[in-house]
Design a protein that fits this description.
Helices cover about 30% and strands about 30% of the residues. The protein has about 250 residues and is of the alpha/beta class. The chain has one domain: Vaccinia Virus protein VP39 (Rossmann fold, 3-Layer(aba) Sandwich). The strands form 3 sheets. A 7-stranded mixed sheet has the order 3-2-1-4-5-11-10, with helices on both faces. Strands 6-7 form a two-stranded antiparallel sheet. Bound molecules: S-adenosylmethionine.
Length: about 250
């Protein structure tokens, strides 16, 4: 199956790095607080991070007591940063796509993936491997772009606006058509895979997971007051979080 490695595109990598360096971004305001609010106890746990990127979270997991962390990522650029800025004797970084998890034969207590699974075509294959690699009672915690965001094809304005350009509502098309959607994000042709909410839930259930919690973060009124642009998230959440247990 096709795998795109867009984070090794130099323009994309530079712009994405700039975005993550900004103090005010959706990752810092919504994604990370939600991820940590759902985090299981990591004390003495073996962690696998799918799409670990530049490795900041791998260090966080050690700081939360994890005994060892394995971070895998398809991008050499992202792992080069991880190895230079976030290395630790208890972290192993591996340059590989998560579609190739078959090649790993090691047990983990917690598998975490932050904003990477929407880049994967074979979601079922990854979920089955995560189940195989987890110990009994192990936790799979992931975030991905929300299904209401991934069905956007990148053609035209994502918003219907009033005559002053104010956003009225989101334009949704083909929610029930599960396919790769290519859009422009820093560069043209960024490939993301759209799956319906029900497909995500059913794939986990069919693979043997029990869902503990799902979260779609949105801003508090105080936050919208401070950063009005994030009112957008009341119309359409950006992120979907799932926490599931291997039964
Ligand atoms: C949005 S970044 C998130 C990085 C990190 N998890 C974080 O939250 O800071 C997505 C990461 O997923 C990686 N990625 C995309 N497709 C992948 C795949 N098929 N296998 C492994 N990693 C992948 C990218 O290279 C990138 O580092």
């Amino acid at each position: 199956m096709a795998k795109q490695n867009i984070y090794d595109n130099e323009v994309f990598f530079k712009e994405y790095s700039k975005l993550r360096e900004r103090e005010v971004n959706a990752n810092n305001l919504f994604e990370l607080p939600t991820l940590f609010s759902l985090m299981p106890d990591l004390k003495d746990k073996r962690i696998l991070d799918l799409g670990c990127g530049t490795g900041e979270r791998c260090i966080d997991y050690l700081n939360l007591g994890a005994s060892k962390v394995t971070g895998i990522d398809i991008s050499e650029n992202m792992l080069a940063v991880a190895m230079s800025k976030n290395s630790n004797p208890n972290i192993t970084y591996i340059n590989m796509p998560m579609e190739d998890l078959d090649s790993i034969d090691e047990e983990f207590d917690v598998v975490i993936s932050s904003l990477a699974l929407h880049y994967v075509e074979d979601f079922t294959g990854v979920v089955k491997n995560v189940y195989r690699l987890l110990s009994d009672g192990g936790i799979f915690l992931f975030s991905q772009e929300h299904p209401l965001a991934t069905c956007y094809s990148g053609n035209g304005d994502r918003w219907t606006r009033d005559e002053n350009g104010r956003k009225l509502h989101v334009n949704i098309a083909n929610y029930c058509v599960e396919k790769r959607n290519d859009s422009t994000w820093f560069v043209e042709g960024v490939q993301r895979y759209h799956r319906m909410f029900s497909t995500i839930v059913n794939t986990l259930a069919d693979s043997g997971f029990r869902i503990l919690k799902m979260t779609e973060p949105y801003p508090t009124e105080e936050l919208v007051h401070k950063y009005p642009e994030y009112y957008d998230l009341y119309h359409k959440p950006d992120f979907l979080f799932v926490k599931a247990v291997k039964q």
